[in-house]
Amino acid sequence: MKIFLDANILISVLNKEYPLFSVTSRILSLSDRNNFVLCTSPVCLAIAFYFAEKKFKTTKAKNKIQILCKHIHIVPVDESAVIKTLQTPTINDFEDGLEYYSAVENKCNCIITEDIDDFYFSKIEVLRSEEFFRKYLFKKKGDNLFKI
User: Fold this and answer.
1) Residues sharing a CB contact under 8 Å with residue 89, sequence separation 6 or more, in sequence order
2) Which domains are delineated in the chain?
């Protein structure tokens, strides 16, 4: 399964934002599994860097981004994504459009974000991190959220 991670998921991991970090860090750990490919765009990385830099300063933020990049695939945002975003009348937020078309053009199965309402126009699945766990990683009803 190919998963696109929105900037807010990356920020949660980089800045250890609880309680979300408990779930988002587990999602990032899926990069070690063969059946999951985690992706993000340079736009999301830039946004995540901005918030990490505010919390940790430039050097530590760069180090955190470098470590993060070892675990995820960086997919391009190309001219096609820009044009499609501009030409899609239902997309009001340019950045969300770029992320969406980056995910679509790179054949991602879903987008994980905490702001699912931002992707109201999406034709691919959009899930909050906790919803993703419940849907794709639980083996049976009643499993603990943090059991994978």
Assistant:
1) none
2) 2-136 (3.40.50.1010)
- Residue 4 backbone phi and psi in degrees, to 5: -95, 125
Cα 29 to chain center, whole Å?
A: 13
Q: Judge contact between 71 and 130, C-beta under 8 A.
A: no
Neighbours of 107 (CB within 10 A): 12
Residue type, 41: S
Which backbone phi and psi does 103 adopt, to 5 degrees? -65, -45
CA 82 vs. chain centroid, Å, equals: 19
Predicted model pTM: 0.90
Tens of pLDDT along the chain (148 residues)? 999 999 999 999 999 999 899 999 999 999 888 899 999 999 999 999 999 999 999 999 999 999 999 999 999 999 999 999 999 999 999 999 999 999 999 999 999 999 999 999 999 999 999 999 889 877 545 545 444 4
User: What is the spatial order of strands in the sheet that 110-112 belongs to?
Assistant: 73-74, 37-40, 2-5, 110-112, 125-127
Contact 13, 28 (CB under 8 A): yes
